[in-house]
TrEMBL record, chain A:
Similarity comment: Belongs to the short-chain dehydrogenases/reductases (SDR) family.
Gene3D superfamilies listed in its UniProt record: NAD(P)-binding Rossmann-like Domain
InterPro entries found in the cross-reference section: KR_dom (IPR057326), NAD(P)-bd_dom_sf (IPR036291), SDR_fam (IPR002347)
GO-annotated molecular function: oxidoreductase activity, acting on the CH-OH group of donors, NAD or NADP as acceptor
Xref: PANTHER family: 3-OXOACYL-[ACYL-CARRIER-PROTEIN] REDUCTASE [NADH], SHORT-CHAIN DEHYDROGENASES/REDUCTASES FAMILY MEMBER
Record-given protein name: 3-oxoacyl-[acyl-carrier protein] reductase
Chain ranges of the Ketoreductase domain: 214-390
Pfam families the UniProt entry points to: adh_short_C2 (PF13561)
SMART domains documented for this protein: PKS_KR
Domain of life from the UniProt record: Bacteria
From TrEMBL, chain B:
Ranges of residues in domain Thiolase C-terminal: 301-447
Name this polypeptide is given: 3-ketoacyl-CoA thiolase
Residue ranges of domain Thiolase N-terminal in the record: 24-292
Gene3D superfamilies tied to this protein: 3.40.47.10
Organism in which the protein naturally occurs: Sediminihabitans luteus
Amino acid sequence: MTDSYLNAVNAGFTKTLAKKLGLPQPAVLRRYEPGAPLVPGPVLVVGGTPGVHDDADDVAAALLRWDLDVRQAPADASERWGAVVVVLTGAERPGDVSQAVLAVAGHLRSLARGGRVVVLSRAPGDDDAPAIAATRQGVDGFVRSLAKELRGGATGNGVQLTAGAQVGDPAVLAALHFFLSAKSAFVDGQLLRVGDGPAWDASGFDWSQPLAGRVAVVTGAARGIGAEVARTLARDGAKVVVVDVPAAGEALTAVANEIKGTALQLDVTADDAGARILEHARARHGGLHVLVHNAGILRDKLLANMTPEKWDAVIAVNLESQLRITEHLLEVGGFSETPHVVSLASTSGIAGNRGQTNYGFSKAGVIGHTRAHARLLAPLGGTANAVAPGFIETDMTASIPLVPRQVARRASSLQQGGQPIDVAEAIAFLASPGTTGISGQVLRVCGQNLVGA
Amino acid sequence: MAPRNPAQPSPTPGQPTGGLRDAVIVGGNRVPFARAGGKYSRSSNQELFTAALEGLVARFGLQGERIGEVVGGAVLKHSRDFNLVRESVLGSSLSPQTPAYDLQQACATGLEAVVTIANKIRLGQVESGIAGGTDTVSDAPIAVSEGLRRALLEASHAKSAGARVKAFTKVRPKDLAPLTPSTDEPRTGLSMGEHQAITTARWGITREAQDALALASHQHLAAAWDSGFFDDLVTPHRGLVRDQNLRADTSLEKLGGLKPVFGTRLETAPTMTAGNSTPLTDGASAVLLASREWAAQRNLPVLARVVDAETAAVDYVHGHEGLLMAPAHAVPRLLARQGLGLEDFDFYEIHEAFASTVLTTLAAWEDDEYCRTELGLDGALGSIDRERLNVNGSSVAAGHPFAATGGRIVATAAKLVAARAAQTGRPARALISVCAAGGLGVAAVVESAGGVEPTATTTTTSTETEA
């Protein structure tokens, strides 16, 4: 789907006109291209105390290892920053953040198009003292508000370290890498909790092929977001098994052949779906490392008009199938080492949506089982996470009437809908090795849409 | 009748013959078959066969793979499609270095392609191969009359404008009518249905028996679709997801109400209707064959091995044999060479050109006199357990895109014997026969591949744990 308004305000006379009229000016987002730099300029790290070795120094050192041009505040205000990384992990009272926050303020106007602000802080916990809890929770409101102020396709996100996690941990760095990169183009105003996952040997890790040697299964892969997920996982080096209902086999074949994967025609609601998926992945590719529960359907009806067919079908496909397949894999020990399960939730499962009681139930249910599966997969060194897309330009959203569609697009901080690739990038990130400290989380890919905020 | 190949002793069934290695069937793919003028009315043979190949490539991850050879063909073929199979390969995701050639043996094209590939694999000439076929009645070639054709050729060779005009002066108005393709037998002028009507009458096959077999075909095919049997054998095409001709809700009453269309001019009461005959159909199929080593290297499943095949031809022109009776001759010869009896099979896949073709063939094998005089046997070949016949339906229900039928049957049979062997722990065997125009018939034996495949182990484990 093309957003013709977005195209119009980014070129020629209509660009000038939109500016003069003060109309929303959504930017063309910076998206991943192999070989392109991680960030569109030098990276400024703020929050450190000069003369003291602290987390900010560790973060700067990590960024240097990625061959970035890294500066620490205070810095020249004339730079065009590719990203600003704010390290607030040491803040224990509200007053502790002001210096760092105000240091960021001085550089915001010189943030490059598609630039990034990433805030590293500690997650509030149940046992925190009041001042610590206030400080850590305060960061939440700061990040969400700051993200709404950024323009030019820039985004603001946060990484919240839970107890025990250190800024140098692989999962913290993986999250930082993702938020800095073009892969997080449509992730905005989000705070991702990262714990201390098991040790991970990053030597020889190739950031351009993070899934090399991994076998991934994607359900609902014949079209839309699922097809894009399959392409993205394959691009990242995975061998991909694409799954969809037999009736979608023609499109599924095209996806499989495009990405040199294998097609498995299968109804995910079948009793033996988990067994057949496992058999295929093991027999053909020698294992199963990544499982993406993407298959989903819509049967919108106001609850007053809801039929058993419409309710049950949505629950069966969107929720029950995920439960049964994962349950089977866990039961028979079907997962290979350090498995990653990523399930498709939706902002409708967070905020609710009129006419979508069935869909909302199913997608909120996904968030629920994701937390439970995180616990069950932990002994395997694995993770379970959910990705909640907001307004994404697909055939499905193209069927929304014009005015509501335009409103839904502009209701996000990025003033546009996302692309299927944006959801796929988030899933590929959560499926990659080194993210083992990230589990039980719901990552929204919504451009910080007002809905579900 | 003695085996036709005395040089080759009858081997122990289940063992590779003559020191040759096995040719195994990895799997198959086809498009759902469409009724003529239906969903594929704008599809060419090349498009359909490419679609069948693409689904096979996707199922088995063969993208960029150089297959030893791809062999297939079409019965109704445009002259521009002289390299139909190679062109389809070039339009597929297979390596462009995959050789291919066209083969044609009327309705036996697909099965003969399987036999050819299997033989090359067994001889060690290729490690892998794809056999198949395609046909479309909807996109059949239409030729110009002989008079117009001669004029056009003459004009194209003419050296001057005058000579060119002169060439066309010989064209008469009647020459302007196009020639539509005909499946009538060139030597008798009779359609296949009329030929079969004679055979049907000769063997006294009743209308009721034919309708019952047609009903079973529809019911079996519908059940197979419902059970997901075709989930890994068929890939939808152009929005068609199931065989278009399939009528799951048909009944003996409905079939019994149809008017006979063949044999209406015979002395006996006509019995063959549109319901118990195959309709004109569009479709394509492909089967992946390989050496065991090639399959193992690629972690591909092994469903069955091609044991042997035999082709027969009958004299329906001057002799008294029925046009579609050649399989009745091919099967006993094949069984004799393999040391097998007619009862030694778990499945019988007898192509339903017409319901009565199957019934006349079975009747012939049960007939002492016929088997002695026509087949040179000591007595009746025997009868089969009808419960094992075309258990997942056949051409009356699925339709019969001529060259595509062999691939459909072989893939189905291979999957059936593999499942049966996995279930019982003993080898399972299927007998396949396909009749063809020109009095031709091909029979083949496939047998579960016997080897321990990792997939089977996995399935068993998971099932046990589930239980």
